[in-house]
Amino acid sequence: MRAPVNKIIPLSVVDGPGNRTSVFLQKCNIACAYCHNPETQRMCTGCGICVEKCPVQALSLVQEKGRDLEGLPVIWDEKKCVQCDTCIRVCPYFSSPKIHLMEVEEVFSEIKKNLPFIRGITVSGGECTLYPEFLTELFTQVRAEGLTCYIDSNGCVDFSRYPDLMDVCDKVMLDVKAWDENVFYSLTRSSNETVKKNLIYLAKRHQLEEVRIVCLEPEVDVEAVIRGIAGSVREHLDDFTLKLIAFRSHGVRTALKDKEMPSGEQMEKWRGIAVNCGFSNIRIV
Ligand code: SF4
Ligand code: SF4
């Protein structure tokens, strides 16, 4: 069983508790206007634009090599690559040619190299829950080593449809990007119905590690999100951290790239609203 892997960060302290190995899978099911790694959103179409632009000829189209490679249309020669990211900048399809299709065992063997130094793994994306069977198998193997397994998700895939995965997943870090469905749609081109369902489902199962709001007004109805979460899972507010993330423009490719981050004062106002709503674990980042 294989999945497209955008990158593996051996040691991360920002993707859940403790030192963790973070695995980023390629492809997303929504398109956030403020996405800061938009090159993870789509699979490569094989258009060849980046192949022409690579300064060290580290890329080639599969057809040029006369190979019938199932899956990825561009071959990336990692040894030649100088990591200039020109390919990512020129890709018009929100993709990257620097992807590996990896078996569960291959990802697991990368994780095993870090075993003495990590408390667990976190799988992110893109949207990693687009690969539920892959995650289930990976998590089963990783947990057998005594590590915890976390999912970082936009919440747009219904978790209740994958009970086997949820049984081997320790916690989820869930984005709630907007509360009003029209606001959510204008930000992501998708519906937030499943996100709200997942919020309640995960809270009842005590599987929420943190719920995150990227704070940016007026594009995000921040106060409504805080109140909406509080109203939906009121009896579980002590179980998870509410993370208020100040919008940053790094990596953003849409019109939002010129927006400024909210002030510290504004972030504190939102913290105050969260406190009044009953949240006890609040982090501003
Ligand atoms: S990051 Fe690597 S593959 Fe991409 S353009 Fe630069 S050298 Fe080529
Ligand atoms: S990564 Fe983007 S630019 Fe390169 S071949 Fe694929 S779709 Fe085209």
From TrEMBL:
| Alphabetically ordered keywords of this record | 4Fe-4S, Iron, Iron-sulfur, Metal-binding, S-adenosyl-L-methionine
Can you tell which superkingdom this protein's organism belongs to? Bacteria
- Can you state which reaction this protein catalyses? glycyl-[protein] + reduced [flavodoxin] + S-adenosyl-L-methionine = glycin-2-yl radical-[protein] + semiquinone [flavodoxin] + 5'-deoxyadenosine + L-methionine + H(+)
Q: Which Pfam families match?
A: Fer4_7
Task: Please verify whether the record's keywords include Metal-binding.
Answer: yes
Where in the numbering of this chain does the Radical SAM core domain appear?
A: 14-280
Q: Which InterPro entries match?
A: 4Fe4S_Fe-S-bd (IPR017896), 4Fe4S_Fe_S_CS (IPR017900), BssD/PflA/YjjW (IPR040074), Organic_radical-activating (IPR034457), Organic_radical_activase (IPR012839), rSAM (IPR007197), rSAM_sf (IPR058240), YjjW_bact (IPR023912)
Under Gene Ontology molecular function, one entry of this record is: oxidoreductase activity
PROSITE patterns (alphabetical):
4FE4S_FER_1 (PS00198), 4FE4S_FER_2 (PS51379), RADICAL_SAM (PS51918)
| All copies of domain 4Fe-4S ferredoxin-type, residue ranges | 32-64, 71-102
Keyword Iron-sulfur attributed: yes
Needed cofactors:
[4Fe-4S] cluster
NCBIfam families associated with the record = activase_YjjW
For this entry, the protein name equals YjjW family glycine radical enzyme activase
Its source organism is: Faecalicatena orotica
